[in-house]
Specification:
By secondary structure, this protein is an alpha+beta fold. The protein has two domains: 188 residues, no CATH class; 242 residues, no CATH class. 48% of the residues lie in helices and 15% in strands. It has 14 helices and 14 strands. The strands form two sheets. Strands 1, 4, 5, 6, 7, 8, 9, 10, 11, 12, 13 and 14 form a twelve-stranded mixed β-sheet that branches. The radius of gyration is 35 Å and the shape is elongated. 36% of the residues are buried.
């Protein structure tokens, strides 16, 4: 029996019993859709998590913190508790020598110091207490910041600010204390918002670096001699550029104010003139060190596979080092657990569908016993009889798998539409590999379910089959 005849007879047999075939196929449709949708949810969660990781620094960056005996200092002197990577309680701080050490490590592409300080921005009645972050021009270029207007800060020039796209949302009225953005923000329609009347690029921005002196002067503070604290000097710092994006589009650097690290260092030394710069450590007598220390270091590795290796080298020097690779490993482990659990739930439906196929094929054999007997008497090959029933079961799996995939895409689209507010890229993701695997699995599952009935048909006695009524 040729393959063409075999397929033709199998389809003809299924068509003669349309209702039973449709009901059996429906079981495969539900089973295939269940397992594909369940797995797609696990893949979608993993994909959304990976995209989020990419937004927050990517998978080849390491953030290094100084080790102040179990504490790291950043953002203008705010301390956060962290587990020490070194048994020594001696402070291990990030200076220019440390940056040079990082640069000479194998697989390190960029090692940039990160210097942060809190300032007060003022334009008319509008104020904003913000953190300024100084980095090298090379690091800023590698961060792939999308520029809407202007350019990145020039290296070695005067102090200039590059504003993130959400910085403007933090300006408040200094007289009333009201923030127009957050007080009028429409969470249902995120394109409906009100911003402070601030022009970051074209209007003068006055910056107060000595914020302690400013607030003391505002609220009647005095120095150690009882003299009222005078208002600190305000500096006009020009803008060099704006980051692309709406004020409602939050990301890793959306709320950042970036500048050249050397320009920031020079400006802070000029502003404080021998006094303690906020965020900088002091000696036992409370005096500042001659050298300026950095709050962090930004490390970029040439390959994700070497991030952990470089991270371990940095920790061996006594620093604290964090990377998104650790986060990624946790996310992937959780995703695998979720996929296994959801896939198991879907597999139950497919197992039930397999039982339905086996039942249908057994019923078909009982109804076609005489037909099978005639085929055997006429000399039909036993393998051809077996293959005919296997082909019928395979067709049920093929048709059910194809229809199940179409149903899966529909369910996936509905899920993504419902969850688009939380997951912009969707929580259900069906890659082409999953489609192919689902089709192959549905066909082989059908053939496997039909294997026992096919073997039973092959072993029927020809004479007993002919005498069957």
């Amino acid at each position: 029996m040729s393959v063409k005849d075999l397929l033709k007879m199998s389809l003809s047999s299924l068509w003669r019993r349309k209702l039973r075939t449709i009901l059996t196929v429906l079981g495969v449709v539900i089973g295939t859709a269940s397992i594909v949708v369940m797995i797609s949810l696990g893949l979608g969660l993993n994909k959304a998590s990976m995209e989020q990781i990419e937004q927050y620094g990517g998978l080849t960056t390491i953030t290094v913190y100084s080790n102040e005996g179990g504490y790291s200092y950043y953002g203008g002197g705010v301390a956060i508790s962290a587990e020490s990577d070194s048994e020594s309680q001696e402070p291990v701080r990030i200076d220019d020598n440390a940056i040079e050490q990082f640069k000479h490590m194998e697989h390190v592409e960029i090692a940039s110091p990160v210097l942060s300080t809190w300032v007060l921005l003022r334009q008319g009645v509008w104020e904003n207490s913000a953190s300024i972050r100084g980095m090298s021009r090379e690091a800023l270029e590698k961060m792939d910041l999308e520029i809407a207007e202007g350019s990145l800060p020039e290296e070695g020039g005067e102090l200039q600010f590059f504003y993130g796209n959400t910085v403007i949302t933090d300006f408040y009225n200094s007289k009333t204390g009201q923030n127009p953005f957050y007080e009028n923000y429409d969470y249902e329609n995120q394109d409906n918002y009100t911003l402070a009347d601030v022009d970051l690029m074209n209007s003068p921005m006055f910056v107060i670096f000595d914020t302690d002196a400013y607030y003391n002067s505002q609220y009647g503070g005095t120095d150690e001699n009882g003299t009222p604290v005078p208002a600190p000097k305000k500096y006009m710092v020009p803008a060099c550029g704006l980051m692309a994006g709406k004020p409602t589009e939050w990301g890793e650097n959306a709320n950042s104010i970036l500048c050249d690290v050397e320009a920031l260092k020079a400006h802070l030394k000029k502003v404080f003139k021998g006094k303690v710069i906020p965020g900088q450590p002091t000696n036992k007598s409370g005096k500042p060190y001659k050298e300026m220390y950095y709050n962090q270091a930004y490390i970029r590795v040439d390959d994700m596979n070497y991030v952990t290796e470089v991270q371990d080298q940095i920790r061996a020097l006594g620093f604290q080092a964090e990377s998104n690779v650790e986060w990624m490993n946790q996310v992937q482990e959780q995703s695998r657990s979720i996929q296994m659990a959801l896939g198991g739930i879907g597999a139950v439906s497919l197992f039930v569908a397999a039982i339905g196929i086996a039942n249908t094929m057994m019923m078909s054999i009982y109804e076609r016993t005489k037909e099978i007997g005639v085929m055997k008497v006429l000399g039909c090959d036993m393998g051809a009889i077996r293959n005919m029933f296997l082909a019928e079961a395979g067709f049920i799996g093929l048709i059910g798998g194809a229809a199940g995939l179409m149903l899966s895409y529909g369910i996936s689209a509905i899920i993504n539409f419902v969850t688009k507010a939380t997951y912009a890229s969707g929580i259900s993701y069906i890659p082409i590999v999953l489609v192919l695997l689902a089709m192959v699995f549905a066909v082989f599952m059908g053939m496997f379910a039909g294997l026992f009935p096919a073997l039973r048909a092959m072993r029927l006695s020809a004479l007993a089959a002919i005498r069957n009524e």
